[in-house]
Amino acid sequence: MKKMILITATAGLMALLITSGFTKKSLNPNFESQVIDAGIEIGYGLEIGDVDGDGKDDILLADKKQFVWYRNGDWKRFVMVDNLTEHDNVCIAARDTDGDGLVEVAVGAQWNPGETTDIEQSGSVHYLERPDDPTQKWNPVTLPHVPTIHRMRWVRTSSGYQLIVLPLHGVGNNSGQGEPVKVLAYNNPGGFEDSWKQTVIDQSMHMTHNFDVIDQGGPESLLVGGKEGARMITYKNGKWSAGKTKNLFISGHGFGEIRYGENFITGIQPMHGNELVVYHKQKSRQVLTSDLKQGHALALADLLEQGIDQIVVGWREENEAGEMGIKLFTAKDQSLNQWESIWIDKNGMACEDLKLADLDGDGRMDIIAAGRNTHNLKVYWNKSD
To answer: Are 272 and 255 in contact (CB under 8 A)?
Structure first.
């Protein structure tokens, strides 16, 4: 039986986490790598979802100048959009929002983080209209935006799905000083090109990097990580709410990446940082390693069927030991005070982004990663006992 524990976060905001039974299995984690594409340019962002309706999850990638997808099985590569904007692409969101078994896709481009004022030269948001044949080019519908668009996800609310978009900077920001970041929500109640509506749902942080979507069965919540810490944004009574402006969920340390689990919160600190951390109940912060360099990818799931999540972390530059890649961190017991790590990929992946999904339908979560300077897209098939 699951036990409910009420925990206090660093700034006093209360959150509810669920602990479950922990099983320390006697097994050797085993992941077999497969190169899906050895010729990507940067691999800014990954998404997973069924593009062609065959019931199997495909891989979607935001690369430097192309948005592409790879068909599950033969892993053939198809270009969705080519040369969308003058500057680089930067993010992609894919999810089945209407229940037809096919993902809807939105993308962000015109990546120019040094320009925080001119919307023509920095940032773009587009909804991709699906063709009858998804292997052909998709039609981008341009939506309003602010500068430095950086991350986006489809999020379920009580009134349907919304596209949540996160800029890196506030308008006119310089080194995180100036206007706060506008966290944006887009919805399309009319189903037509000109009926997309944009709403600012939070303006409390001055430099943000990424956010996690928290699914507890009802409307999903957001956990946003940035220079000032982390902020919880919830959807209640038909609108988004972040509570009092100064009430951060976790403060005192900046986040580059952040993920919310049933038993703990994990993050990379600071932005593009060297530390992988875990936040326990009662304000307790634990550093699992400080050996990352340009930490940029993070995920949580129970890949080993232990009854508790493991952490998958990736970094994109060689550290002082000359090492880069992807590691898996697993707790030694339910106290979560001691952790051990294994290499998933040592020096073969300059990890820009990673996702977890069961791509082969065997019931085990696989790891999908894109490499920036290694220019590769890989799947690490979970063959653990």
So the answer is: no
Distance CA 367, CA 381 (A): 7
Place of tokens 């997808």: 69
Convert the pLDDT of each residue in 282-303 to its tens digit. 669 999 999 999 999 999 999 9
73's tokens: 């099985």
Tracing tokens 């993920």 back to the chain, one arrives at: 259
Whose CA is closest to 188, among 222, 159, 221, 220?
A: 159
pLDDT in tens, 213-231: 999 899 999 999 999 999 9
Q: Which residue in 261, 192, 227, 235 sits closest to 7, CA to CA?
A: 261
Distance CA 94, CA 355 (A): 12
Task: Count Cα atoms within 13 angstroms, Cβ side, for 10.
Answer: 19
pTM, rounded to two decimals: 0.92
Q: Is the bond preceding 270 in cis, omega lying within 30 degrees of 0?
A: yes
Contacts of 85 (CB under 8 A, 6+ apart): 109, 110, 124
What gap in Å lies between CA 369 and CA 373, rounded to an integer? 13
Residue 214 identity? I
Residue 207 to residue 177: CA distance in whole angstroms: 8
Amino acid of residue 210? N
Cβ proximity of 43 and 353 under 8 Å: yes
CB-neighbour burial class of residue 309 (10 A; exposed 0-12, middle 13-18, buried 19+) = buried
Q: Which residue has the higher pLDDT, 46 or 217?
A: 46
